[in-house]
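quick q for whoever's on today - can somebody do inverse folding on this one?? i tried earlier but teh output was garbage lol. tokens:
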């Protein structure tokens, strides 16, 4: 990792719980592209050892790519204290939070990064719901979602989106996962038609999508459908034996899916120079 790398930590205005959206990452140079990493529903994204997004951030930084993680607002952030009790974690951290509130957090982070950190061009990389958030934002649908929820749009000037990367993001979950729709955030998702409309209208200059062949949340067709509708689609990559969260290969924990995605993307991301001071 470069010696000139700066570790930064910021906080944008959140909509729920502690009202904070945490932004952390590695900045190398304004002459290199900046990638924003966004977690899936009820996820955590930070630079801690063992955190998937922290691992991914370090992999990107090693390639001289600036990277920031975004972690949305919630009532508690002590995920490790809950162990395997996922349901209790979800309710303690997110009970009462809607999809629109979660989307507001992401829009607030993008506004802060554009206006305060002065990054006019971005790469957006979202996992699962994170990818859908980024799709709704780049497709312009976010204004409608926020207005309907009575939330003020925090974005004054939308940055140029050099690339949109979707990892395990689909427009329709598998039928057997229906009960999850009763969980906070998921219980107020935008309809499938809005996701399809956002895909058709995304303003991202380049769109890539990754899909794990053992994805237990979305069928391949659900992810492929969104990708194919985007006007600037580049490639749809299937990672064999990989799960929905990109944490395992054939059921065995591994960071190889993250390495494989970075190795594929780095040549495309670095081909596009970042903003200059």
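ok took a stab at it. sequence:
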């Amino acid at each position: 990792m470069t010696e000139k790398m700066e570790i930064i930590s910021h906080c944008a205005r959140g909509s729920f719980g502690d009202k904070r959206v945490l932004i952390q990452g590695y900045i190398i140079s304004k002459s290199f592209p900046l990638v924003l990493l966004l977690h899936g529903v009820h996820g955590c994204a930070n630079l801690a050892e063992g955190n998937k997004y922290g691992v991914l951030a370090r992999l990107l930084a090693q390639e001289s790519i600036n990277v920031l993680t975004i972690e949305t607002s919630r009532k508690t952030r002590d995920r490790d204290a809950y162990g395997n009790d996922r349901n209790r974690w979800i309710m303690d951290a997110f009970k009462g939070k809607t999809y629109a509130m979660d989307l507001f957090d992401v829009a607030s982070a993008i506004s802060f990064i554009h206006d305060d950190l002065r990054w006019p061009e971005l790469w957006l990389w979202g996992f699962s719901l994170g990818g859908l958030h980024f799709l709704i934002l780049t497709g312009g649908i976010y204004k409608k979602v926020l207005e309907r929820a009575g939330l003020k749009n925090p974005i004054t000037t939308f940055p140029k989106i050099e690339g949109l990367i979707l990892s395990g993001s689909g427009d329709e979950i598998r039928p057997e996962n229906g009960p999850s729709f009763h969980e906070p955030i998921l219980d107020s998702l935008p309809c499938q038609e809005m996701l399809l409309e956002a895909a058709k209208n995304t303003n991202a200059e380049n769109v890539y999508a990754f899909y794990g062949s053992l994805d237990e949340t979305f069928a391949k067709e659900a992810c492929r459908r969104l990708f194919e509708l985007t006007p600037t689609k580049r490639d749809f990559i299937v990672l064999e034996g990989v799960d929905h969260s990109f944490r395992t290969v054939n059921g065995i924990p591994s960071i190889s899916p993250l390495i494989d995605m970075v190795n594929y993307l780095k040549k495309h991301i670095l081909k596009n120079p970042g903003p200059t001071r």
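fwiw The mean pLDDT is 94. also Residues 212 and 239 are 5 Å apart (CA to CA). so keep that in mind when u check it
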